[in-house]
Amino acid sequence: MGGRVSVWRAESGNTFTKSQDKEIGRQKEWTADQSCRSIGEGAFRNNTKLRRVILPEHVKEVGVKSFENTSLRNVEMKGIVSVRKEAFYNCTRLSQVRIPRTANFIGKRAFAQCRRLEQVQIERGSVCREIKPETFAGCSNLNSVNIPDGITRIERRAFYKCTALEEMKFPAGLKEIGTEAFYQTALKELTLPEGLVKIGDSAFLKCNQLEYVCIPESVKAIEKWAFHGCNRLKILEIRRDPAEIGPWIINRSAKIRCRKGGIVDSYCQESGFQVEYIEKKV
């Protein structure tokens, strides 16, 4: 699923490097000048003085680990195309992020372990199609996420242990939710979008605030432990029989609502799960 992603690459002469960071010294605020097209690998890594960064429209790439372990509190990205792997990893003072519509790539663990991060907005119209593995993993204060409709995949552990995340509007066009994507989040109710095809292994494992889930008719695979360990879950509604359904998708204390006589009904009988039947349309 998902097409090939083209990643913009700057010429070396237009890249801000680690050696240039040393020249900045104890500066708390930095704005990229007109000559800068990308922030190089590890350029500001471990800079504990930097508080605010402004990346104007001419800066197209934030490199691998470029702001890892910094004390950034605010970053403005106005024309970014690519945010590479671990670009803002462990920026523990960063509180909000706005990713412009120009972005077509956000790498693995790009914002992972940003423990004070509360709000993330990916602008409407963004050409980005995937939330990569562990992008926001460990962002324990994250409570608001705005994901545009163009996103088709939320990959493995994308929001792993985002323990303050209570609500999410899933994008139209979403096809796949990956393994442990929302492990131990605080989501309370899920109405997943029509068009979703796959719910991965342990996708919502240990979401202990979750009470109700509605799975659309388009879903073809619900993998093992998808909603297991959700101790407050009362109803998992499955509106059409999927082609694949794994073991222990819920706890025995929950109830599956499904159509009588179908694959899910048989699954419930074999697994010892409580069942409630959806009334047939007249």
Layout of helices and strands, plus pairs?
Blueprint lengths: L14 E2 L1 H7 L4 E3 L6 E2 L12 E4 L5 E2 L11 E4 L4 E2 L12 E4 L5 E2 L12 E4 L7 E2 L12 E3 L6 E2 L21 E2 L11 E3 L6 E2 L12 E4 L5 E2 L12 E4 L5 E2 L9 E4 L4 H9 L2 E4 L5
Parallel strand pairs: 1-3, 2-4, 3-5, 4-6, 5-7, 7-9, 8-10, 10-12, 11-13, 13-14, 14-16, 15-17, 16-18, 17-19, 18-20, 19-21, 21-22
Q: How would you portray this structure in words?
A:
By secondary structure, the chain is mainly beta. Helix content is 6%, strand content 22%. Strands 11-13-14-16-18-20 form a six-stranded parallel β-sheet, with no helix packed on it. Strands 1-3-5-7-9 form a five-stranded parallel β-sheet. The protein is elongated, with a radius of gyration of 21 Å.
Model regions low in confidence, pLDDT < 50 over at least 5 residues: 1-11
Assess the beta-strand content as a share of residues: 15-25%
Morphology: elongated
N-to-C span: 37 Å
* Strand adjacency order, main sheet: 11-13-14-16-18-20
Instruction: Count every beta strand, where a strand is a DSSP E run of 2 or more residues.
Output: 22
The Cα radius of gyration reads 21 Å
Listing every helix as H and every strand as E from the N terminus to the C terminus, the arrangement reads: EHEEEEEEEEEEEEEEEEEEEEHE
The average pLDDT is 92
Percent helix: under 10%
Helix/strand-derived category reads: mainly beta
**Multimerization state:** single chain
Largest sheet: 6 strands, parallel
Number of helices: 2
